[in-house]
């Protein structure tokens, strides 16, 4: 662990001109390993392309993999020779895309990935005496050291009801939080409603979904904590993490990121450093430490905006994730039937203040109802008026109505989908 932790810290701080010396050998080895030992890639990779693989840009010559194909072909086609479900560790995605995926890792994979995860926590202020509260879905595999009273983790299962989550939180008394932002915000709102004053939390790492600025501020103000952001997934582990200035930098030494833009062109994230323009579109990831189940150019299902590094932190030097726009599946339909991503409407809400949570509900083509939960102390009428004014910009395409509600019910995974579509035959 110590060696991998030092390696993770060093790679996190590499300059762009140092990156390829570290990641290209790993990438080439991964491609060759996938072609030689993974049944799916033996069939789909061109041997000539594998033999000629000479630079990171050659990824563009390989096929893209999405979760639908992954589920259709099954784990036996993507597990490398010598690995099976029995001799690997598994983890399943939260299913926010509607298609949960189970991934498998070797112990060597996990040795490095756990080190990068620990480095994320340390870089965001974790100290040895902290008790970490993890907010995520499903059951939790206890670390063997927990039985000895070490590695003091508090597991808050976001698939349970709010009372159970609050009980787990208060019983565990965490001082450092990591997990789904809306679940943390809902817990804070409930603690405030009960009149509970809890000031033990020093740092909150928001991960897994977006959160309204008002809700984020409410969470941090309630705890008196400092906030951090991490873009992490089960498939890729950490893709980006915020620096001391609060800017999310790509972890380019561990994950190769590409962006498929709306015009169909695909570009490496690092290309923004030379052409200076932002990349907007669907993210493709290739995790470099993945001997058991390599995923080359994997579609995560997220839309992102990535720009050149203009951050003055001087600790991280890679391109920055300006925004995680939302899920590709979060579609809404205009009056004339054209599909738009839900972020098209949610972007208008940026100008409205006092919003804790929101969701776009579509029951008919061209009509969208915006559900709003006001932040603590915000007047419902004023919040609704601001949202209505902001949404006027969408009037040419949608009939938008605003409804203030007390709460928005999360999905089974504890997350709140940006778009809840009730259109027949569309989802």
Task: Please describe what this structure looks like.
The longest helix has 22 residues, at 16-37. The protein has 13 helices and 20 strands. The model has no long low-confidence stretch (mean pLDDT 90). The strands form five sheets. A seven-stranded mixed beta sheet has the order 4-3-5-6-7-8-9, sandwiched between helices. The protein is globular. It is of the alpha/beta class and 427 residues long. 30% of the residues lie in helices and 27% in strands. It has helices at residues 2-12, 16-37, 39-44, 47-52, 67-73, 75-78, 107-123, 162-172, 181-193, 213-223, 272-275, 343-346, 380-391, and strands at 89-92, 102-105, 132-136, 153-157, 176-179, 203-207, 226-233, 237-242, 248-250, 255-261, 266-268, 279-287, 298-307, 320-327, 331-333, 339-341, 355-364, 367-374, 399-404, 419-421. It folds into three domains: 2-113 and 234-327, ANL, N-terminal domain (Rossmann fold), CATH 3.40.50.12780; 124-229, Rossmann fold; 331-421, GMP Synthetase, Chain A, domain 3 (2-Layer Sandwich). Strand 8 (237-242) and strand 9 form a beta hairpin.
Shape: globular
Q: Any guess at the CATH architecture of the largest domain?
A: 3-Layer(aba) Sandwich
Mean residue pLDDT? 90
Strand content: 25-35%
Structural class: alpha/beta
Name given to the CATH homologous superfamily of the largest domain = ANL, N-terminal domain
| Alpha plus pi helix count | 13
CATH topology of the largest domain: Rossmann fold
Strand order of the largest sheet: 4-3-5-6-7-8-9
């Amino acid at each position: 662990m110590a060696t991998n932790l030092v390696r993770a810290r060093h790679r996190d701080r590499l300059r762009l001109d140092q990156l390829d010396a570290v990641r290209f050998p790993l990438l080439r080895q991964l491609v060759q390993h996938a072609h030689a030992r993974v049944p799916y890639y033996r069939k789909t990779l061109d041997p000539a392309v594998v033999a000629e693989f000479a630079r990171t840009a050659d990824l563009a010559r390989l096929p893209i993999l999405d979760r639908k194909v992954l589920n259709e072909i099954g784990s036996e086609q993507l597990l490398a020779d010598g690995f099976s479900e029995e001799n690997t560790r598994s983890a399943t995605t939260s299913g926010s895309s509607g298609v949960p995926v189970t991934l498998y890792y070797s112990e060597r994979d996990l040795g490095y990935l756990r080190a990068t995860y620990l480095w994320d926590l340390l870089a965001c202020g974790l100290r040895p005496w902290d008790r970490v509260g993890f907010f995520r879905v499903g059951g939790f595999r206890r670390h063997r050291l927990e039985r000895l009273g070490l590695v003091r983790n508090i597991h808050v299962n976001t698939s349970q009801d709010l009372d159970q989550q609050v009980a787990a939180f208060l019983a565990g008394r965490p001082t450092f939080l990591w997990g789904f932002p809306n679940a943390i915000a809902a817990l804070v709102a409930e603690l405030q409603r009960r009149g509970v004053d809890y000031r033990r939390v020093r740092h909150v790492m928001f991960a897994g979904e977006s959160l309204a600025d008002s809700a984020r501020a409410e969470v941090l103000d309630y705890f008196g904590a400092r906030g951090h952001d991490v873009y992490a997934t089960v498939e890729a582990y950490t893709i980006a993490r915020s620096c001391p200035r609060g800017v999310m930098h790509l972890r380019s030494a561990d994950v190769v990121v590409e962006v498929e833009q709306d015009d169909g062109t695909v570009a490496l994230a690092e290309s923004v450093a030379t052409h200076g323009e932002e990349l907007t579109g669907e993210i493709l990831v290739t995790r470099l430490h993945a001997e058991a189940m390599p995923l080359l150019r994997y579609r995560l299902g997220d839309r992102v905006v990535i720009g050149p590094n203009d951050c003055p932190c001087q600790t991280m030097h890679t391109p920055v994730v300006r925004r995680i726009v939302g899920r590709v599946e979060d579609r809404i339909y205009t009056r004339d039937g054209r599909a738009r991503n839900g972020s098209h409407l949610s972007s208008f809400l940026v100008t409205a203040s006092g919003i804790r949570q929101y969701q776009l509900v579509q029951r008919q083509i061209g009509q969208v109802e915006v559900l709003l939960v006001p932040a603590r102390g915000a007047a419902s009428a004023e919040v609704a008026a601001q949202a209505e004014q902001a949404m006027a910009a969408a009037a040419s395409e949608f009939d938008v109505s605003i409804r203030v509600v007390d709460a928005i019910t999360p999905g089974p995974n504890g997350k709140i989908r940006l778009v809840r579509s009730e259109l027949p035959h569309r989802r």
